[in-house]
Amino acid sequence: KGYVMGRLYPDFEIKKGKEKISVQSLKGKVVFINFWFDSCPPCRAEMRGLDSLYNTLKDSAALEFISMTFEDNPTIKWVRKKRKVSFPMYSISAQECQRLSFGCGYPTNIILDKAGAVRYINAGGFRDATKATQYIMEVIKLKIVELL
């Protein structure tokens, strides 16, 4: 993971309605990126904390919150409803998940600075939702706020 710190994030493109999100479209924003899949216990444990993080910071125009998975859109819809999450989730290929998470596994959380450089990366997590939420709100949120 250390080899990616400070490096520019690789280019990518995902569709967001009629718009496209890419590294270029994100320049000038702090970007939080999360990788997950539903049968991953630590990924599920993070959902509530990620939703709290999203709802706390979503009004900041300087932040983009992106959650990516190789799950299909019906699964994403089901997960959003079952886990009661409101943050945006995007379906991309398993290969793209691997490439964009630097092969780190699941869950992986990455924070990019306004220049598009990787400032934080963490793979794996807690199976306990309370501990996961605490980590997200105390560590990840702080790192995002520092960059905003």
Mean of residue pLDDT values: 95
Structural class: alpha/beta
User: What is the number of beta strands?
Assistant: 7
Distance between the amino and carboxyl termini: 23 Å
Helix and strand sequence: EEHEHEHEHEEH
Total of helices:
5
Oligomer kind: single chain
Strand content: 15-25%
Q: Sheet bearing the most strands, described? A: 5 strands, mixed
- Low-confidence stretches at least 5 residues in length (pLDDT < 50)? none
Radius of gyration over all CA atoms, rounded: 14 Å
- Fraction in helix: 25-40%
Attribute tags:
148 residues, 7 strands, single chain, 24% strand
Textual characterization of the structure:
The protein is an alpha/beta fold and about 150 residues long. The protein has 5 helices and 7 strands; from the N terminus they run E-E-H-E-H-E-H-E-H-E-E-H. Strands 5-4-3-6-7 form a 5-stranded mixed β-sheet. Strands 1-2 form a two-stranded antiparallel ribbon. Strand 6 and strand 7 form a beta hairpin. Helix 2 crosses helix 5. The chain starts with 12 loop residues before the first strand and ends with a helix. The mean pLDDT is about 95.
